[in-house]
Each structure stands twice: as structure tokens, then as C-alpha cells.
Amino acid sequence: MSAPRLLLCAPASGGGKTTVTCAILQALMDRGGNPVAFKCGPDYIDPMFHSEIIGAKSRNLDLFFLGEDKTRYLLAKNSAGAGLALIEGVMGYYDGIALSHEASAYHLARVTNTPAVLVVDGRGSARTLAAVVYGMKTFRPDSGIQGVILNRVSPMLYPRLKACIEEETGVTVYGYLPNRPDCALESRHLGLVTAAEVKNLKEKLKKLAAQAEQTIDLAGLLALASSAPALAAKEIALPEPVEGKPVIAVAKDKAFCFYYADGLELLETLGARLAPFSPLEDEALPEGTCGLYLGGGYPEEYARELADNHGLLREIHHKILHGLPTVAECGGFLYLHRHLGDADGRYDWQMAGAVSGQAHNTGKLSRFGYITLTAQTDGLLCRAGESFPAHEFHYWDSTTPGADFQAQKPQSNRGWACGWHTPTLYAGFPHFHFWARPELARNFIAAARRYEEALL
């Protein structure tokens, strides 16, 4: 299929990829366009900015999770009928796993034949920006870098910077954004704060969109996107759906919001009926719940409110211990502990208690990055010996992290035991993507259906 598409990348994190991406998406939405957005890598937060505030459909494209064929397939599937597919890169353009380019934005651009546009932070530089662009473009002969957008540069300096860069590198400069402190996006330890937490976010993005209309060559970017070759995507065979449409309750609120949208859709495709609920506000699980999905998020930020919802905590505790099929990732895993507190004992909130032990803030990044999980026991998701890709990123740890999986870092000798895995429970710090191994989703749904049948 032919899908107009661009990938926005940068020499490093913090250069303004998300700001420029959101400005362009909002401008196109304000024009009445039909853009779709993608995020390279496992990040949950940037897609929330794309979708929840701007209103553009947004998905993750992660080559470590999905491999090349599934990545191309999901890009094609989610771009169908769109005027532009805008992919936001991750970290520096060439930064992948263990100093390789594997799973980098560059890797994604090459796999999908997508033109790359380099976002360069112009603060404190002048002619050196041309050297940065030249180096990024020529570092690999197939870099795919075909354009530049300058960020945080002054209107007076921009015309001379544009002429210098184009003369020295041959790369077209498609505009700039000036420094706009009034439109800054706040951050915290997992990256940007979530879309729901940014004050006046809609107003900020409207200002950025108006700025983009004035100083970014949107028509030129759309023409470049249209030059992308047809996307060759193979159809992906999926398991047979589970009959019966069992209800899987999905925790979705400010405390639990880290989900891959394609993963949720896959659960529905394979036979589940998803029922969102709020552990902060709802006093009971949705009616007919036969499975429970507790995604990641920031339960520690809302620990008091979660602990005060006694009725829901008691129901979740009772039902999990009596066989309710449950997937709990990272923040969801924290929620299942007996206690959530800090290492110094200054506060201690009682949680669901479906997992023994206490979760506590370590004050530092505990484990980070891609891993492969290999099951040590038969359980809800898979059999002993089977593996699937996952990702960890957390500042909290547990006195009982589990030992039913062996985690292995790619291209490394480092590994550790983690996770709980029983016939009805997966709980642990690692996140995973159901599209990585669709059988995991079907196994979860099938367990929910068996739970439902036992109640009849």
C-alpha cells in the first residue's frame, strides 16, 4: 500500500521531537486533515499526547517487540486512509540496543522506507549545526535523512542558518520553531508527565500549531511524505478467536494508563470484550468480569486514593486469590502488593494484597531496557521454556519480585529472575506487547472464558 509518511528524529533525547511532532499533528488536525501518529519504541506517554489531546490516532512501532514483518503490517494497517503517518523517533537517531542500531529510529526508517526529518536543537550553535546535520546524514549511506527542522532558534537567525545548512549539506530545511517557554511540556522520572496532567495542554498545543503554520513548511513536509515508496506489508496470521466474548476489565484512569492500543485491539480481535474501569473511582469491577488487566502507570502518585477504595481492593484481592485470570504489569504489579511505601517507612499504603510483600521506592532506576522473558513454569500466558520480548523501566522495587521468569538482556550476559506466573496470574515489573506473541493474548482470553464457564 502507499502511505504518505515521515519519521521525525534527532541527534539525542531532549531536542524537541515530541514538541515538533505535536505541533505538526495539531496544525494538520486544525486544518481538517487526517494524520495518524506513531512512536518508535516502547514509550507509552508520547502516544497519549498524540491521541488523547490532539485527537490523532497513535500507535507504537517497536522492532524489538514486533520484528520487521509485524512492524510493517501494523504501520500499514493503522495508516490506511490517512493523509499522513507521522512517526516520532526515540533517543538519538542511531541509538539502538547495546550501542547497535537494532530497534533504533534509523532501523525503523530503513525497515519501512520512511523519509527521515532531523529535528535539531539550535540553542548555543550557529554554523556548527551544518556539521551536525552533515554528520548525521552521512554517518550511514542509507541514513534516509531528507530534511531538517530547527528547534529553539530565533526568527532573526533562522534565514542565515537555513542557507548555511542547505549550502553545506544539501539537505532541505523545512522551517523552525522558536523557543516558546509558555508551551513547555513538563517531565518526570518516566519521561513526560501524562497528557491528563499537563496544565492547559490543549491551549499550549494550539499555540504550537499556530506557530508551526507560520514557521514550518507543512506543504513541503507533506510533499516529502508523499514521495515515500509503497509499503510492502505481509498479512499476519493470528490464532483462532475464543468464543463467548468473556469480559476482561481494564484499569484505565490517571493511575493506570500505560497500554499499547494495538495490544488492546488484539484482545478484542481474539475474542475478549474489554470493560474499562477506574481503580481510583469505581467501587467494584465491571459486571461480568472474567479477566483483569492492570497496566502500568503511576499508582504511587495516587496511593492514598487507591488505598481508600477499600471495597474494590477487597474484591480484587478475593477474586484473584480465587482464580480470576489477571495480567498485572509494573504499576499494576505494585497495586497487587500488600503494601506500597517508601524504603524509609515514612508512608505505607495498603494495597490489594494479592501478591505478598511490600513495594518501595528505591530512589533510582532499578532495571531498565529490553529483555527476553523465559517462563520457568507453566502459567497463564505460556508454558515453561517459552519466551517473549518485554521491557522494564521503574524506580520502585519489591520484596517479592517473583522468580517464575528468567529475564535476559539482549547482547549481554546480564539476567535475573522475576515475575509471578500461575495458571491464572501474570504479575511482574516487565511490560510486554500482545502483538509480540498473539498466543499470549489468546491464552489470557481462553482462561477468562474458562473462568466464566465455571461460574455458569
Tell me what you see in this structure.
The longest helix has 18 residues, at 438-455. This protein has a 7-stranded parallel beta sheet, with helices on both faces. Strands 12-10-13-15-25-24 form a 6-stranded mixed beta sheet. Strands 17-16-18-21 form a 4-stranded mixed beta sheet. The chain has 456 residues and is of the alpha/beta class. The chain has 13 helices and 25 strands. Helix 1 crosses helix 7 (201-215) and helix 5 packs parallel to helix 6.
Features of the shown structure:
alpha/beta; seven-stranded parallel beta sheet; six-stranded mixed beta sheet; 13 helices
Give a short overview.
The chain has 456 residues and is of the alpha/beta class. 32% of the residues lie in helices and 26% in strands.
**How many strand segments?**
25
Structural class estimated from helices and strands: alpha/beta
The rounded distance between the terminal residues' Cα atoms is: 46 Å
Biggest sheet: strand arrangement: 3-2-4-1-5-6-7
Q: What kind of sheet is the major sheet?
A: 7 strands, parallel
Oligomer class: single chain
Q: What fraction strand?
A: 25-35%
Task: Bin the helical content.
Answer: 25-40%
Q: Output the number of helix runs.
A: 13
Compute the average pLDDT. Answer: 92
Provide the gyration radius in Å. Answer: 23 Å
**Which geometry do the CA atoms define?**
globular
Which spans have pLDDT < 50 for at least 5 consecutive residues?
188-193
